[in-house]
């Protein structure tokens, strides 16, 4: 209660303002409130939310959080688990809805306005979230960085908000394989995710209609709906320009991960929890990140959310070997169309030639 008298310190302590805290509490209170019994008074919802947010803000061990709030260690663990679960369940429909055609169109317009990449509906990337090695799992969670992790795969819009996430895959799996086996990858492959129909690029009808696309790095396979950079070192200027423009749009996903990590310091150290609780923590922080950006960016319509848990990939289960990554002729043609557009009078931007010719092409 004393922190409410010092808004700046409150925001540092809980990573959100007093008004944002109170609005979140109003949403969660009916779902985290416990019944009063003859034996003791329950911990009130405000205290429960404060405990959870303090853990997410610092990543301190449960023993430290317990000492700060004068609670039992097991009580803190139970509060974090239950509150993270309710944060995801109560906020996902509003702050991470299943993308509709209107949401895709808005995202594409924002990518063109902010990052000079038309017909782009999201930037895709994966983040390894470090955890303590789970018991009896061998090398399942061991990744190429030499740590144990689970993977957060995220599709991000032009304003650093998460459009869709997939959580819980083993750290030893590749980003491309995880995407191919995810619910998001499967629905995109089937064409059942409300993506708008192909359209002409701005002021370039001679190039024909192209798909709305997602941009990603070389860890992902080329698909008609997924663009990756041209490979190789000695590329022609037009291909280097394409790689530069794609990198400028693709880096939004990495920036979103950076914002997430700086806001919630639980990502700064290995999570000392089991994988199931780590999944809940990751989902809660992602939806809270959208909630906090929502205060600035405006309202989002409430529709049915895209439930990865029911789709099967968010649970920790045996990973299926991904399909081959050989690109189709259609995918290569779409990438070449964007390449031609970026060096045409309709699609070029003044700074791209200076950066490429001065050797400032971003490595992707």
UniProtKB/TrEMBL annotation:
Q: Write down the superkingdom of origin.
A: Eukaryota
One Pfam family matching this protein: DDE_Tnp_4
Q: Which UniProt keywords apply?
A: Hydrolase, Metal-binding, Nuclease, Nucleus
Which parts form a coiled-coil structure per UniProt? none
Q: Which cofactor does it need?
A: a divalent metal cation
Give every DDE Tnp4 domain span.
Answer: 124-290
Annotated GO molecular function terms are:
hydrolase activity; metal ion binding; nuclease activity
- State any GO CC term: nucleus
Nucleus found in the keyword field: yes
Tell me the compartments it is located in.
Answer: Nucleus
Q: Which family, according to UniProt?
A: Belongs to the HARBI1 family.
Q: What is this protein called?
A: DDE Tnp4 domain-containing protein
Q: What is the lineage of its organism?
A: Eukaryota, Metazoa, Chordata, Craniata, Vertebrata
